Amino acid sequence: MHVTGCARSCALPHAAAHTLVASAASRYDLYRRDGATGFGRAVARQLTIDQAADALARGARPSQDDLDA
């Protein structure tokens, strides 16, 4: 898990399995590394930290609520 406030993430020297990128105050976009460039594929956007924890507990598969957020 990597948490960043920067979409470029220059400080991470390796690819993380999951990344949370701060997208607004107390909101995060969750990415899962899948071979795509950058952080990988976005699996949910505009999550609270609790919603992100729930998504990670489910294996970072988005629920409809995550997609609608």
Can you walk me through this structure?
This protein is an alpha+beta fold. Helix content is 20%, strand content 33%. It has helices spanning 49-57, 64-68; strands at residues 2-4, 18-24, 27-32, 41-47. The chain has a four-stranded mixed beta sheet, covered by helices on one side. β2 (18-24) and β3 (27-32) form a beta hairpin. It is globular, with a radius of gyration of 11 Å.
Number of domain units: 1
* Strand content range: 25-35%
Order of helices and strands: EEEEHH
The description of the largest β-sheet is: 4 strands, mixed
Stretches where pLDDT is under 50 for at least 5 consecutive residues are none
N- and C-termini, Cα separation: 21 Å
Helix content: 10-25%
Backbone CA Rg? 11 Å
Number of helical segments with 4 or more residues: 2
Overall shape: it is globular
The averaged pLDDT comes out at 80
Number of strands: 4
Strand order of the largest sheet: 1-2-3-4
The secondary-structure class comes to alpha+beta
